[in-house]
């Protein structure tokens, strides 16, 4: 008998994080399920983005930063000495707050990662990968006749979808998104939200957002961060309609924040 249970993709145990002597995260425990969208909400400076970067070890590039605790992906501790951070960041991609395409062609933006990692063996295989990634990012029909044009000529919303395509091109398992729509207009925001919903059938997505309506629309589970602590983590519907914690209710109803 085949089980339809959703499996844990990421498990976080007793995570503390420090910038020098300052503790930015305290005793975070969370299980992120495979092929779901997990939203992280909370006021500015509460630790959401710091936590997100713990999931692919990007904080290691910050002098004086250190983490205690464990982060497991598919049951393996990603902070183990045997884990190569470059390989990890291929498996756990990141989409940033502001679109950051390279100042080169649309095609070369998407092909960049696979070329560096040697994921394609021929020009035709590379072209197939570029098209597949752009289709996944719902951008192929927009750019298929302008692949050689500079990516910076795209609209901001199109640039963000290109950055998503660039992440998808290296075949990740997890996609981290740090406020991916905060620089976009409402129409482009909804396009990215629709894209996220479509992508979760293939990827585990973790998104930081200040937009509570966005979290309610797209996510399966939501966690509220507050002053470096995870106040509450549950199914999104429960967080927004039947929260257990007073601070959660105060935040999602707009009484504090």
Uncertain spans, ≥5 residues at pLDDT below 50?
none
- C-alpha geometry: globular
Order of helices and strands: EEEHEEHEHHHHEHEHEEHH
Query: Based on DSSP secondary structure assignment, what is the total number of beta strands?
Result: 10
Radius of gyration, in angstroms, nearest whole number:
19 Å
For the largest beta-sheet, the strand count, sense and barrel status come to: 6 strands, mixed
The secondary-structure class comes to alpha/beta
- The helix content is 25-40%
Helix count, per DSSP? Answer: 10
Overall pLDDT score: 95
**Strand percent estimate:** 25-35%
Major sheet: order of its strands? 6-7-8-3-9-10
- Give the termini distance in whole angstroms: 47 Å
Quick summary:
About 35% of the residues lie in helices and about 25% in strands. It has about 260 residues and is an alpha/beta fold.
Walk me through what this model shows.
The strands form two sheets. The protein has a six-stranded mixed beta sheet with strand order 6-7-8-3-9-10, with helices on both faces. A four-stranded antiparallel beta sheet has the order 2-1-4-5, with helices on one face. Helices cover 35% and strands 26% of the residues. With 257 residues, the chain is α/β, with parallel strands linked by helices. The relative contact order is 0.17. The longest helix has 14 residues, at 123-136. The chain has helices at residues 48-54, 85-91, 106-117, 123-136, 140-143, 156-168, 186-199, 212-218, 236-241, 246-252; strands at residues 8-19, 22-33, 37-41, 65-73, 76-77, 92-95, 174-178, 204-208, 221-226, 229-235. Helix 4 crosses helix 6 and helix 6 runs parallel beside helix 7. A hairpin with a 2-residue loop joins strand 1 and strand 2. The protein is built from ten helices and ten strands.
